Automatic annotation (TrEMBL):
Gene3D superfamilies, per the entry: 3.30.390.30, FAD/NAD(P)-binding domain
Known cofactor(s): FAD
A Gene Ontology cellular-component term: cytoplasm
Gene Ontology terms, MF aspect: oxidoreductase activity, acting on NAD(P)H
Pfam families named among the record's database cross-references: Pyr_redox_2, Reductase_C
Name of the protein described by the UniProt record: NAD(P)/FAD-dependent oxidoreductase
Top-level taxon: Bacteria
InterPro entries membership: FAD-oxidoreductase/Apoptosis (IPR050446), FAD/NAD-bd_sf (IPR036188), FAD/NAD-binding_dom (IPR023753), FAD/NAD-linked_Rdtase_dimer_sf (IPR016156), Reductase_C (IPR028202)
Alphabetical keyword list: FAD, Flavoprotein, Oxidoreductase
Limits of the FAD/NAD(P)-binding domain: 10-307
Keyword Transmembrane helix among record annotations: no
Residue span(s) of domain Reductase C-terminal: 326-415
Length: 416
């Protein structure tokens, strides 16, 4: 059995923000040893949010999503392997296999991310189906958003709603087909999810909830979808029904994987069940010391925080990942930030502070906050268009607050 060499590189597998953050933090933290990054895409590590936000709205090129320009890696002595998927890892021998070659690592970081969840009935229809997960997906979808065209979105989650917002900005007729009672229903609950539904309808989206999908067929003019027994005909179809963590390498190598909620299991320091192997970002199902349970999160901020924690531990700092989950969205002129995670136990009360406003297309959704409580404790909080509120949202999540005072706008958030 080969022993890990002290001169072997830290190897990072993945091309997303977690991977990019690990190598950045290592170099900025003074690590002077060799580093290698392997990604199966043709691009250096990049962030995912601009794919459905700024790039889709023509606010900037995709290159703005790069964690660093490609020449940064050579300048910082990071051996970057693009278009080079890792096909196997051997934790016992501390090796990876890529492009048919075996290489040794001192430490390994799995930042393999997630892949779009596919809908077989769409894929088998013969129609052109769009998913949005990678750089090339974004380029293809943006090219399809032409004024006057008609687009169907299956799924009313965050990605689906952001695509719908961008498509409407480009003059596309949009129909959203959502099986749940409301978009984002499982995350936000009836009342708050209803405000997002109102926002999209006010901007001309044909939002259909509680639908039952039937056959999907390719037609000479595009795509036909059976919805509640009727036919919906569109030019393009986008499927946005979530993502699946890419655990194939980890499973094949015998690492512990959570088969129920997904992801590679790690402790709070993001160490997997194999020595010198870490997991970060979407793929990590990590013990959370504050929430007291394992958690896997598919959001931008978690990728950054995980990257920092892994790098710190590689630098010998014994650091836990204890940040509460955070995410944001931009839809039309509405901006939102959310902190917390109710978890499997959910919430038993929602408090809305302020007045949501989605009367017409000129509205930005109003300025308000929402709070999810369980047994009197705030388990998640969100602001809409109230950018001064985020510090109070972070502070209040995890505390017990009188719901009546929480709802009373006369009581400053800073006094709660």
């Amino acid at each position: 059995m080969a022993e890990p060499s002290t001169t072997a590189p830290v190897v990072v597998v993945g091309g997303g923000l977690a991977a990019g953050t690990v190598v950045t933090e290592l170099r900025e933290g003074g690590y002077d040893g060799p580093i290698a990054v392997y990604t199966d895409e043709a691009h250096p590590p990049y962030e995912r949010p601009p794919l459905s936000k700024d790039f889709m709205l023509d606010k900037g090129p995709l290159s703005d999503a790069l964690v660093h320009p490609e020449d940064w890696y050579a300048q910082h002595r990071v051996d970057l392997h693009t278009s080079t998927p890792v096909t196997a890892i051997d934790p016992a021998r501390h090796t990876i296999t890529a492009a048919g070659n075996e290489a040794t690592y001192s430490s390994l970081v799995l930042a393999t991310g997630s892949r779009a969840r596919h809908l077989p009935s769409a894929d088998d229809s013969g129609a052109e189906v769009h998913y949005l997960r990678q750089w090339d997906d974004a380029e293809r979808l943006r090219a399809a958003l032409t004024e006057g065209s008609r687009l169907a979105l299956i799924g009313g989650g965050w990605i689906g709603l952001e695509i719908a917002s961008a498509a409407r900005k480009h003059g596309v007729d949009v129909v959203i087909l959502e099986m749940a009672p409301q978009p984002l229903h499982a995350v936000l609950g009836d009342e708050v999810a209803g405000h997002f539904a109102d926002l999209h309808r006010a901007h001309g989206v044909d939002l259909r909830t509680g639908v039952e999908l039937g056959a999907i067929r390719s037609t000479p003019d595009g795509v036909e979808i059976e919805v509640d027994g009727d036919a919906v005909s569109v030019d393009r179809l986008v499927v946005g029904i979530g993502a699946v963590p890419d655990v194939s390498l980890a499973e094949a190598a015998g690492l512990t994987v959570d088969r129920q909620s997904g992801g590679v299991r790690t402790d709070s320091r993001l160490r997997t069940s194999a020595a010198d192997v870490y997991a970060a970002g979407d793929v990590a199902n990590a013990d959370h010391p504050v929430l007291g349970r394992p958690l896997r999160v598919e959001h931008w901020d978690t990728a950054i925080q995980h990257g920092k924690v892994v790098a710190a531990n590689l630098l010998g700092q014994d650091t836990q990942h204890d940040a509460l989950p955070y995410f944001f969205t931009d839809q039309y002129d509405l901006g939102m930030e959310y902190v917390g995670n109710p978890g499997p136990a959910g919430f038993d009360r929602v408090v809305v502070r302020g007045t949501p406003d989605a009367r017409d297309e000129s509205s930005d959704g109003g300025t308000w906050t929402a709070w999810w409580l369980r047994d009197g404790t705030i388990v998640a909080g969100m602001h809409v268009n109230d950018w001064d509120a985020i510090d109070d949202v972070r502070r209040l999540v995890g505390t017990r607050v009188d719901p009546d005072r929480l709802a009373d706008e006369r009581v400053p958030l800073g006094d709660l």
